[in-house]
Structures are given as structure tokens and as C-alpha cells.
Amino acid sequence: MSTENLDISRRRLLGTVGAAGATGLMLGAAGGAAAHAAAAGPAGAALASVGSTAVPFRGAHQAGILQPLQARGHLVAFDLVPGAGRKEATALMRRWSAVAERLMAGEPLGTGDTGVALDAGPSSLTVTFGFGASFFDRTGLVARRPEELDPLPAFSSDRLDPRRSGGDLWVQIGADDALVAFHALRAVQKEAGGAARVRWQMNGFNRSPGATAHPMTARNLMGQVDGSRNPKPSEPDFDERVFVPAGGEQPWMAGGSYAVVRRIRMLLDDWEKVPLKQQERVIGRRKSDGAPLTGGGETAAIDLDRTGPDGKLVVPDNAHARISAPEQNGGAAMLRRPFSYHDGFGADGEPDAGLLFIAWQADPRRGFVPVQRKLDRGDALSPFIRHEASGLFAVPGGPGAGEYVGQRLLEA
Prior knowledge:
The protein is of the alpha+beta class. 22% of the residues lie in helices and 19% in strands. The chain has helices at residues 3-14, 49-52, 86-104, 133-138, 178-191, 238-242, 268-271, 276-283, 320-323, 368-376, 407-410, and strands spanning 39-40, 46-47, 72-80, 126-131, 169-175, 196-205, 257-266, 335-336, 339-345, 351-361, 385-395. The strands form three sheets. Strands 7, 8, 9, 10 and 11 form a five-stranded antiparallel beta sheet that branches. Strands 4-5-3-6 form a four-stranded antiparallel beta sheet. Strand 9 (339-345) and strand 10 (351-361) form a beta hairpin. The radius of gyration is 21 Å and the shape is globular. The protein starts with a helix and ends with a helix.
């Protein structure tokens, strides 16, 4: 991404992201994006602003990290097939990168294109690629596996399904149009060919651009404003928290980031029985606008020491906002950019719904892990959520001119 485009992406993000924060379930990032100027479509007709927006494939960082939340998303993990190694992985990343670049530009794939996205523009499509710890064993690149990919510790709220966790390769697809997103998912799956097979796949959604009167922080399926304390690109330590600096032990990760991916089921039937005031005490924020219970607007600092007339803390000692606050966790923070999901209803009538948590950080050992450990010990939100799947992936920096994603790893 050019410096100009990166600055534009960051300015767009600034309009909808709150102050610096940590993790837990309040994971959302920006809740919408400002409209963009209309552009000419393939047939010369003007595309709506949602369809006309294109995100650059090349740049210092991969697309899909700094962009505002997208309306539709697909997460998919692949395992290399038995016998496939570095050679096959290299060819696969070349194919995937070529397809992603064309699709993100709104170009058809030519012969063999399914036609699913005909008549649509790029619709802010992003395709992001990452490598799991097992990838390095499969390709003989163990010496280049970063220490940051060490397995996440077990947490008491984990109910992890190994069939929906991990993976050699991970792809995140996001777009503001459902058909454009599905078209990209299908293209990525087809291009895997005989080199890799799908391990798991999940579908998510957020509000569509323009659904609210003005850009705002998203709400999750609990109805909470979600993402008020996300790090802001204007903060001087934003890059330090989110992106891997140059000069590290693994040079191929310069400009990259580590994605923690968790499928977090929300026990909505239980949550919706809780009175509003108690819900707000569980979170530590007002449900109406996301403002802290200690007053001010959504982005106001939380006064963790404030007490009410009864002498009790206004924000309870086990409130989610208190436990996950950066000042309670040595400044730990990460950029959360999730999707909500709904996979139908169980035999008992309860919704299988929640959050596809995606958190970006320069080092999960200093971001996700310490905060989640603290949440695991006493978060008031824990009885209403369940972590059902997990993954950790190294996402290299964006490709330069003539490069494919991962080239600096696979050809170094």
C-alpha cells in the first residue's frame, strides 16, 4: 500500500475507532465507513459508493487489517495435503496472491470465473493470508517460525473444538457485498487445487455501510457498542502495538502482524434475561451509547476509582471494561476487527451465535495472552460466553511490486 493509501486507510479508521484498549469480548473495531465517490462500473454505469471502493492489494501491510469493518466476512483455514511441502506452498501462495489482486481490483478472473460477482464492483474486498505454526513443520521452515507463534495457553472458558481450530494456512476475506465476498471465498478454495484442503470455514457479518445515520462503532449480538477502546492509528505507539518492526529475528515478518482468531459463542438466551442495569454493570458501560458508567461520551476515559453514594465502585471490580482496560494490563492492547456470526438454532431452540474474534498485534504474548488470562480469572461476562475455536497465525507484511504474499519467507 502506498504511503498515500495507507494514510487514507488510517484516516478512515480514525473516524470510527475509539481510544486504545485491550481484549476480551469487547472486540469490535470501527462500525462503518464514510461513503465514497461513485465510480464507473464495468458496463459504464455508475456504481453505488459501496460497490466502487477498492482496497490496494500491495503495500507495507496486508489489506484487511487497517480497513474499517466490512459487512460480510469469511474465515477459512487450510491444511497442506500429505506430501505437499515448500514447493507446493510456494506455488499456492503465487496463485492465491494473483487471484486476490485481481478480485480486490474488481476484475473478473476470466475463463472459469463463476460469474457470482458479475455487475458488482470491488466493494472494499480484502483478502488476507496467514501461516499457522504447523505450516513451518510441513514446509521444512522450522528455523523461520517466530517465537510469537508458540501455542496459546489454555483458559478455563475454553471449550475448543480441534476440528475448527488451528490450520497450516489462514485466509480472511471481507467485503461490503455478500456475493463479492462469497466469490472470493470460492476462488480461493478452487485455487487451493491439490495442494491444500479446507480444515474449517466460518462466516460472519457486520452492519452494512450506510445503515446508520453516521459512521459509528459497531454493536455485537448482545447489543453492546463494541470496540470503543480500540487503538487509534493517530497514537504514537499504534504501529509498535499492531505491526512487527523491521530488524527482528524473523525479517520476513517486518510490517506483518499476528492474528488471534477465536470463535466466541454468546449465550444470548441467558444474557437477554439479565435486566438492562445489570447488563451495564457486567460490561461497565451504558448499552445505549457505549459510554462508561462513570460518565462522559463513548470515548471518555473510565474513572476506575470513582465510587457512588453507597461507597461502592461505579464500575464493579469484575466488570469487563475494568478488567480489560489497558491501565489494568500494563498497557497491553491490540486492534480488534471481528465479525458477528449466526449458525442457526440448536435442538433446544438456543441460537448458535456470537463473535468471530480477530485481534491484531505485534506480539500475542504481550497483547492477547496476558489480558485473556486476567479476564479468565474473574470477568463478569464469562458466564455468558464460551470460546469454542481458536487459532493463531503469522500474517506477513504486504507484498511489494512483483511479489506474492509470503515470498520473503518461502524464497529467503
